[in-house]
Amino acid sequence: MSERFCIALDAMGGDHAPDMVVAGADIARERCPNVDYLFVGDEERIRPLLARYPALAAVSTVRHTPDAIAGDAKPSVALRAGRTSSMRLAIDAVASGEAACVVSAGNTGALMAMAKFVLKTLPGIDRPAIASFFPTLRGESVMLDLGANLECDADNLVQFAVMGTVFSRTVLGLLEPTVGLLNVGSEEQKGHESIRQAASALRASALAKNFRGFVEGNDIAAGSVDVIVTDGFSGNIALKTAEGTAKLYAEFLKRTFKSSLLAKLGYLLAHGAFQKLRLRTDPRRYNGAMFLGLRGVCVKSHGGTDALGFANAIGVAGDLVVHGFNEKIRDELARLQAALEAAAPSPEATEAAAV
Amino acid sequence: MSERFCIALDAMGGDHAPDMVVAGADIARERCPNVDYLFVGDEERIRPLLARYPALAAVSTVRHTPDAIAGDAKPSVALRAGRTSSMRLAIDAVASGEAACVVSAGNTGALMAMAKFVLKTLPGIDRPAIASFFPTLRGESVMLDLGANLECDADNLVQFAVMGTVFSRTVLGLLEPTVGLLNVGSEEQKGHESIRQAASALRASALAKNFRGFVEGNDIAAGSVDVIVTDGFSGNIALKTAEGTAKLYAEFLKRTFKSSLLAKLGYLLAHGAFQKLRLRTDPRRYNGAMFLGLRGVCVKSHGGTDALGFANAIGVAGDLVVHGFNEKIRDELARLQAALEAAAPSPEATEAAAV
């Protein structure tokens, strides 16, 4: 898709909204010029911000609503009581075809519940999943689910494997992405029953060629596989543990460079190289979690991010639109329907896995 | 305990056994002189190694067995067929009172199954848990379970909280260790039912004062609490994700220092400071996972470790013996029996948590 399209933004979601939403959109605007923006939220707060960026204002529309979803609102409550919220109206714009995608830095659970309710899932997908990129020793990998579904059965995991594969092909351009199931050991008898069943199903499916079996937590950063499939509970623990550990080592590094005069001099010399490392590992670079499996593109930004991070989330959403991700996932799913059918855990497979 | 005691070593467990077991014991011997060693395994391989360390040989006994547990053996098979294995005979030495503790770098599942079968659990503890130290921004914290119990109910989690608290008091010397339950969000309604039930139980217990509710993956490295309680599946994922991420950043650091001439010069200057950082974050420093909740001290070393790492695992076991950990945990458990009883999820608490 190279024609002009519109991105709907929940202007009131996130710790620093609406300021960082507007400032982020302006950064994104410079990067992809053929996009219009629909800001949904409190007009009185958005207008003065937009006035600071005339070029952005020229391609933007504001849809006023006084309502916003609280960061700690329960998804079920948000769904029931949030019909006129900025988040909901931004999603509605995608459902109506007015916008090609939606980006929000608001409450993750509420966003997922609303997006699922309004946009519905793609055919063949029971539950959407949250996916994100991870830096690895070998480049980048994709992990899903990161928190949408705390408990997953074997069918869900197999569908996540299909979505992750298509995503990796479409967005990362990998022809034959490898897939691993996150587990506590690589031996066949390890882990929960649902994971063992999913493994049997994948081994019997059209994805078998690229399925590498079970992977462990350390395989995420090692880049052992391109797509890591897991339930939302484990995925969220892994995501946040990785973020926390990265922060710890960045802090250790800072303390080390400050620990002696020689180390400080050393830092002055290595400064340029470390600037590059900082850019490469900047968490804002990895901002933008994709909700996969919906009939519409929905990207969740980190709630605490700044304008640059939010711009990256917008960039991810734009990429998915430009690359026709959902069209491709639909095509691939149809093509892989045989895989999904072959992959549905048969009674024999289930029995074998349980031994 | 300041009198002489014996440490039983599974001489055949681990990727580099028996070499690193013997060499590790010699390093440990220099650190704590009043310990005797019982090496269990293939005498023909152990004797020539011991001959290289006369001071160690002087305080060591060798118990010959030709059998060893394979690294990929299923725990149930190891338990049935491994009665004369080096691992089993080393545990037996603790059960008979001949040794004060046992250290093995062998198959974790087999070691846990055998230790539980031979040593039994402490009164009031249904399932033992694997615990280990983690480096944090604020020092060190303890996390359990790291893989012994893939599924845990609320009672198990409450017992882990009690064991972690006692461990933190006894070994880390913290008077009032704070406790958090690992979850995917800090809001009360988040997570699996077992976690929510455990939270209600802990809030109603004698541990309430130091219970900080739910923590997330990033809180592990942040050191938000002193004791992180979780089921063995999530704990294992978190442990290995943290290890993998630390390795990734160490590699990024190495590449950065090699990326330009200035950076290389900078490294030469900062070298000393980085040596200290390396020592501080050396994974071998954190080697030695404690099996808590057993009537005997059992420490699991990382299977791939070297002599220095194995020596640290021996050091952890020795510490637990010297500090009378199991006696203290027994006393504390008796003292906290009221806590455990108050903490047993009542029907009302369960109902409230499920809302």
From TrEMBL, chains A, B:
InterPro entries noted in UniProt: FA_synthesis (IPR003664), Phospholipid_synth_PlsX-like (IPR012281)
E.C. code: 2.3.1.274
Record's protein name: Phosphate acyltransferase
Catalytic activity: a fatty acyl-[ACP] + phosphate = an acyl phosphate + holo-[ACP]
Domain of life from the UniProt record: Bacteria
Family: Belongs to the PlsX family.
HAMAP family linked: PlsX
Function: Catalyzes the reversible formation of acyl-phosphate (acyl-PO(4)) from acyl-[acyl-carrier-protein] (acyl-ACP). This enzyme utilizes acyl-ACP as fatty acyl donor, but not acyl-CoA.
Subcellular compartments: Cytoplasm
Gene3D superfamilies documented for this protein: Isopropylmalate Dehydrogenase
A matching Pfam family: FA_synthesis
GO molecular function: phosphate:acyl-[acyl carrier protein] acyltransferase activity
Keyword Acyltransferase set for record: yes
Coiled coil: none
Keyword line: Acyltransferase, Cytoplasm, Lipid biosynthesis, Lipid metabolism, Phospholipid biosynthesis, Phospholipid metabolism, Transferase
Chief location of this protein within or outside the cell: cytoplasm
